[in-house]
Amino acid sequence: MPTSGDASGALPHPHVVLLPSAGMGHLVPFSRLAVSLSSSDHGCGVSVATVLPTVSSAESAHLEALFSACPAVRRLDFHLARFDASEFPGADPFFLRFEAMRRSAPLLGPLLAGAGASALVTDIALASVVIPVAKELGLPCYVLFTASTAMLSLCVHFPAYLDANAGGPVGDVDVPGVYRISKASIPQALHHPEHLFTRQFVANGRELAKADGLLVNSFDEFEPEAIAALRDGSVVAGFPNVFSVGPLAPVSFSASEPAENQADYMQWLAAQPARSVVYVSFGSRKAISKDQLRELAVGLEASGHRFLWVVKSTVVDRDDEAELSELLGEGFLERVQGRGMVTKGWVEQEEVLKQESIGLFISHCGWNSVTEAAANGLPVLAWPRFGDQRVNAGVVARSGLGVWEERWSWEGEEGMVSGESIAEKVKAVMADETVRNKARDFCLSNRLSQMDALQHDCVVDFAELKVEYPS
Ligand code: UDP
Ligand code: UDP
Question: Which segments does the entry list as coiled coil (predicted)?
Answer without folding.
Answer: none
